[in-house]
Amino acid sequence: MDLTQDEQRPARTRRGPGPWARFLRHRLACGGAVFLGVIILAALLAPWVGRHDPFHTELERLNQAPDAVHWLGTDLIGRDVWSRVIHGSRTSLTVGILAVALSTLIGSLLGALAGYSGGPVDQAVMRATEVMMSIPVLLMVMLFVSLLGPSLASVTLVIGLLGWSSTCRVVRGEVLVLREKEFIVAARSLGNGHARVILRHILPNTVGPLSVIATFGFANAILLEAALSFLGLGVPPPTPSWGGMLNEAQSPTVLAGMPWLWMAPGAAIALTVLAVNFIGDGLRDSADVRSL
Amino acid sequence: MTVAEAPELVRVEGLKQYYPVNRGVLFRRQVGAVRAVDGISFLIRRGETLGLVGESGCGKSSTGRAILQLQRPTAGRVFLDGVELTGIKGRTLRRMRRRMQMIFQDPYASLNPRMTAGQILSEPLEIHRLARGRRKERVRELMDLVGLNPGYADRYPHEFSGGQRQRIGIARALALQPDFIICDEPVSALDVSIQAQVINLLEDLQERFGLTYLFIAHDLSMVRHISDRVAVMYLGRIVESAGRDDLYEDPLHPYTQALISAVPLPDPDLEARRSRIVLQGDPPDPADPPAGCNFCTRCPVAVDRCHQEDPPLQEVRPGHWAACHLVA
After folding, report:
1. Interchain CB distance below 8 Å, A186 and B104
2. Among B5, B16, B213, B316, which is least packed, fewest CB within 10 Å?
3. How far apart are CA B319 and CA B250, in angstroms?
4. In 3-state terms, what secondary structure has residue A3?
5. Would you say residue B231 has pLDDT above 90?
6. Helices (H), ranges, chain B
C-alpha cells in the first residue's frame, strides 16, 4: 500500500468560507466600508469635490440658504459649507488614523510584554491599564490638550497616547493563550530571543482581534476629535473640522433658523462613526484567527 | 562500534521540575508544588534511542522541556556532550541550542500559522547565521530530506495535512544539524497509517546523520520498535529502565508489568490467552504524592513496607534497573 503518494498531495482543506468571504456576507459592514471609502475619496480629492475654497469669505453672501452655487449654503462669515464639510473630513480622518496607529502600537507592545513576561511586569501594566480605564477619557484629553495648546498634532498625540488601554488588554489576553502554544516553545528551542518571539511569532498572530479593536478605536478617535473641536479645544480655526463647525453653530438663531450650518457636519460625524462601527462589527464576526 | 560502547552524549542527574501552586486572590502565596519531575537520572549514548514511556501527566514532556532548558529545572543537572546546560543562558545557551532540538506532539499547534513552510525552515538558519547566501537551496534540501515536495515552500501550514506538517516539524529540527533530538510523542496525534511513515522517516534520519533520540511516548509498541533502551516513568520518577528486549520480555516492576500486559497481541490465539493486569484507580495527585512508594496506591502486590519506605532505583541485573522493594 503506497500511502506516500497520497500524502504528497497537499490537503487544501478549508472548512467553510474564509474570513474575507464572511466579511462580505455582513451587509452593514459592507455598506459601512463603501461609505468610508467615499469619505476617504472625498478627503483625498477635497479641492475638486469641494468646488469652493473652504477659507474664502464672500462678505456679500453671509448666511445664505443652500442654492445651486453653494450646495449647502454659506456660514456666518460667508464661507461655503459644502466645501468645509468635505475638507473637514481630512481633519477627522487624519486624527483618527494617526491616533489609532499610535495607540495600537503602544497597546500591542505593552500587552504583549505583560502577557509574555507575566509576574510583576504583568501586574504593573494591568494596574496602569485599569487606572487609564477608570478615568473618563474626555476629561484627560481635555486636560492634556489645554496644557499642550490645541493643534492637530497635540489632539492626535493626546488621543493616541491615552487610548491604548483596551488594545493592551485584548493583546495581553491573546498572548496568554499563544504563549502556551507549541510553536512558541519551538521558536524558543530554535534559539529565538524573547524580543523576536514576541515580534515575529506572537504579535502577527494577534492581527485579527487587533484589527477589530483598532477599528473601534478609530471611530472613538473621530468622536473625541469632534468633541474637542466642539468644545473649542480641537483643531483651531480657520481649519475646517466637523466638531468645529458644530461649535460655530451653537446660537439659538442658527439652530432654529439656519439648519444647513449644523445638519451636514452633524450627519457627517454620525454617519462616519456609524460606518466605522459597522465595519468593526463585521471584522469581529469574520476575523477568526484560528481558522486562517 | 555498537551503541553500548558509544560515548555518552546526554547525562541527566537528579532532575526535578516542580510547578508552584498558588492560592489567594489579593495576596498570592505558594501553598505547595506539583512535582511533575521528581529527581530522575539517566544517560543516553551517542547514536542511541532512549524510549521514555508513562501515562499522561507522569512528567514525560516536562522532562523533555527541562532537558532543553525551555523551562528552568527546579533542581538537578543536565549535560550535553560534557557541557552543563543547567544554569547557562544568553549566547552560550543559544550556541548549545544548535546541538539539541525537539519534535513536537501536535503538528497543528507546533507550526506558526502565519509563516510559510519555507519561512519556518529558514528561520533557524537566520538565527544562527547558517547557509548564508544559499538559504533557499538549503530549505529545498531539508524539504526533500523529509519527503516533502520542495515546490510547496510557499504554502502555509493550514494547506498541509497532519503528516506533512509533522514532516515540516522534523525538517525544522534538522535544519541546525543537531546531535540530539527529543521526540515528544511525535506520532500520537497522527493517523495510524501515517504513524509508521513518520517513524520510518525518523529511523532513516537517525541512521543517516547519527542522531541520538530521546523518544517520549505512551504507546509501548511504538517505543519497542524504535528504542534501544526504555525507561518507564510513573508520577515524576523512573520506576524501571533496561535494554528494550530485556524490559519487554522480563519486566520487573509491577507497573511495567501492568503496562505491558495491556498491549494487545497481533496473534488471535495468543491474544485470547493473554492475561491482563488491570490497575485500579487513577494516579495520585503529583502535588500530594503518597508516602512510601509512589505506586503503592495502585500496586496489586504492595506490602506494608511499600507504604512506608520509598524504594530507590537499583540495578537488579546488569543494565536493568528497577525501583521496587519486591524485586531487590
Report:
1. yes
2. B5
3. 13
4. helix
5. yes
6. 60-67, 90-97, 117-127, 135-145, 162-174, 192-209, 220-226, 244-249, 254-261, 268-273, 304-308
Using a CB-CB cut-off of 8 Å, the residues of chain B touching A189 are 68, 70, 97, 101-102
What residue type is A115 in one-letter code?
A: G
Q: Domain limits at A195?
A: 45-291
What's the burial of A253, exposed, middle or buried (CB within 10 Å: 0-12/13-18/19+)?
exposed
A8 occurs within a structural domain: no
Instruction: With beta carbons less than 8 A apart as the criterion, state whether A140 and A162 touch.
Output: yes
A102-116 burial: b if 16+ Cβ within 10 Å, else e: bbbebbbbbbbbbbb
Place of cell 532512549: B50
Q: How confident is the model at residue B26 (pLDDT cuts 50, 70, 90)?
A: low
Count of the separate structural domains present in chain A: 1
Q: Do B194 and A183 touch (CB under 8 A)?
A: no
Residue contact B70–A181, C-beta within 8 A:
no
- Say whether pLDDT at B177 is over 60: yes
CA distance A8 to chain B (A): 7
CATH, residue A259:
1.10.3720.10
Binary contact (A183, B94; C-beta < 8 A): no
Nearest-angstrom CA–CA distance, B58 and B127: 34
- Does residue A17 lie within any of the structural domains? no
Q: What is the DSSP string of A91-147?
A: HHHHHHHHHHHHHHHHHHHHHHHHHHH-HHHHHHHHHHHHHHHHS-HHHHHHHHHHH
Q: Which three cell numbers stand for residue A74?
A: 454659506
Interface confidence: ipTM more than 0.90: no
In a domain, A39, yes or no: no
- Whether a cis peptide bond, with omega within 30° of 0, leads into A240 is no
Which runs of consecutive H residues, i.e. helices, occur in chain A?
3-8, 19-25, 27-44, 46-49, 81-117, 119-134, 137-148, 152-162, 165-178, 182-189, 194-196, 207-230, 242-248, 252-257, 260-286
- The reply to whether A259 falls in a domain is yes
